Every structure is written in C-alpha cells, then in structure tokens.
Automatic annotation (TrEMBL):
This is Uncharacterized protein. Residues 19-37 have a biased composition (Low complexity). It comes from Candidatus Syntropharchaeum butanivorans. Residues 1-37 are annotated as: Disordered. It comes from the Archaea.
Length: 161
C-alpha cells in the first residue's frame, strides 16, 4: 500500500482522492439537513501483503443540523493489476464486476452536529484465488453514508505485496 496521502496529514494513509462522481446522492445537495465529511481514514500499518488483515479506522464529522444515528460504509475494491503473469492473463478475461469486491458495514453511532464519529473495521484480504496470487494494485472506493444519505466518496490506492 502506498504510505503517502493527498487529503489527510497522516503517514499511515494510502493515497486518497475525494470525488462525488459515483452516481450517489450526497448530503450537501440541499435536499436534507444531513451532511458530513470524512476527516481521516487511518490504517494500522503502512503496508500489507496479500492475505493480511487490514485494520482501519474512519473518522467523520457531522456538518449537518441533525444527529447522524445510522452509518453505512461501502467499500469497493477494484483490481487494477496483479503482479504474476498468470494473474495478469486472468484479469484480461474478467469483467469489471468480476474484478470488483464490495463490502458493506453498518453502524449505529450517534454523532451530533459538529461532533466527530469513529467507525472501525477489520478486513482479511485473500492471499490467492485458484492458485493465483492476489498481490497487486487495487483502487478502493470508500462511500460513507449517514442516515441513508451519501456524505462523501473517497478513492484510495492500495498495494498488496
């Protein structure tokens, strides 16, 4: 995983880009009193190997006028490139959906307006599938929802060794 960061001053973060072009409605659209933003996404170590468990903590700020009581984090990991020759050949035959893994986590953390909430999770990465190493480069999209409204979408670059 790349240890540098564009959006947050923390040396344990991968490259991060904020975007709102994911086809999701956002909390800043004016249609709701719910809004917020990701403050940081912190990892337990600067790099990972395929098969490792990734421990991550997401902090977000409630910038709206009502409490956020239900959070959902959607994580989409898209395999851009695999290190092995066999893996690269296999990727050529796969659709975007087959190259993407999606995980959803729900939380019930009460975060009042102006406050910062913390959501933590652990994810075990796969070492290999059908004998093919999953070491390679991934684009990870993190979507944070609060009270059913998309608050922010952030893209990260992840490297599994």
């Amino acid at each position: 995983m790349s240890p540098h960061d564009e959006g947050v001053d923390n040396s344990k973060n991968p490259t991060q880009k904020t975007t709102s072009d994911m086809g999701e409605s956002t909390g800043s659209s004016g249609s709701s009193d719910v809004s917020g933003r990701i403050v940081s996404i912190d990892f337990d170590k600067p790099g990972y190997n395929a098969g490792d468990t990734i421990n991550v903590e997401l902090k977000f700020k409630n910038t709206g006028v009502v409490p956020i009581t239900q959070e959902e984090v959607i994580i989409r990991a898209y395999c851009e490139r695999l290190d092995s020759t066999l893996g690269r050949l296999a990727l050529r035959t796969m659709t975007e959906d087959q190259r993407t893994s999606t995980t959803r986590r729900t939380y019930s953390v009460n975060v009042n307006p102006g406050e910062i909430g913390t959501l933590a999770a652990s994810f075990r990465t796969e070492r290999e599938i059908e004998g093919v190493s999953l070491a390679g480069d991934y684009e990870v999209t993190v979507i944070l929802k609060g009270n059913g409204i998309t608050l922010e979408v952030r893209k990260l670059e992840l490297r599994l060794n």
